[in-house]
Specification:
Layout (H helix, E strand, L loop, with lengths): L1 H12 L2 H4 L1 E2 L11 E4 L5 E4 L3 H20 L4 E12 L2 E11 L31 H9 L10 H10 L15 E8 L14 H15 L13
Antiparallel strand pairs: 1-6, 2-3, 4-5, 4-6
Helix pairs in contact: 1-6, 4-5
Length: 223
């Protein structure tokens, strides 16, 4: 219970449940919408919700403005994929997107965020990104080589059956993200100010102890 209490306090302090939005564009029957991408290699991918895209864009714009002004306030974006049960946040996946790219430039993952749906702060449509790789497992006609075990785990938790051109979720899936101020206190108050990379490790460690059968992160687990 101690780990869950720590987790719940972090989520309350950061308004995760209140600010969380649906990850996918879905119908009332929880069928996830898809859309076609690619010019020569055309394929269907899962559609993010408009609210999810707006949340990412708003938070990433804070990162880009910070980077361009050289204020150096934010490290990057922390994000959660989760269920909500009786008002509580049940974590599915925890990750980060850093502001800084190579040679101290803005990371390609967040650059041109309004139009860059291929990367889209790690939630892009391309392979090697969450939506693209999950789609390769969930939707038919993707190359077999793009079907990765990590996202097979995701699909088994999230979807009723797959592959399918009309994939349905088991229950609503939510998303939250925040531009992380490097002076902020993280999930473990005793550590004080917490940088983004350390925050991600701490969140995964606490969540994997509190929700050992639910969390989909493979690295950083406390078990």
């Amino acid at each position: 219970m101690k780990h869950q209490k720590i987790w719940d306090e972090f989520c309350t302090q950061n308004n995760v449940a209140k600010q969380g939005v649906p990850l996918f564009e879905v119908t009332h029957s929880l069928e996830v919408a898809t859309h076609q991408i690619g010019k020569t290699n055309k394929r269907q991918v899962l559609s993010r919700s408009a609210d999810m895209e707006l949340l990412v864009i708003k938070q990433v714009e804070l990162l880009i403005a910070d980077k361009e002004s050289a204020n150096n306030i934010y490290d990057g974006l922390i994000y959660l994929m989760f269920y909500i049960e009786e008002g509580d946040v049940k974590p599915l996946y925890i990750g980060k997107t850093e502001s800084q790219g190579r040679k101290n430039n803005i990371s390609a993952n967040i650059k041109n965020i309004k139009n860059n749906k291929s990367n889209f702060a790690r939630w892009g449509d391309n392979y090697q990104y969450h939506i693209g790789d999950l789609s390769a497992v969930v939707i038919p006609d993707h190359p077999l080589k793009e079907s990765k075990l990590k996202y097979l785990d995701w699909a088994n938790i999230l979807f009723q059956e797959f592959p399918s051109f009309k994939p349905k979720l088991n229950k609503p899936v939510y998303f939250w993200c925040k531009a992380w101020d490097k002076s902020s206190i993280g999930i473990w108050h005793d550590f004080g100010e917490t940088r983004l990379t350390f925050l991600e490790y701490l969140l995964i460690g606490v969540a994997s102890s509190a929700f050992p059968t639910l969390l989909l992160n493979r690295e950083g687990q406390s078990r």
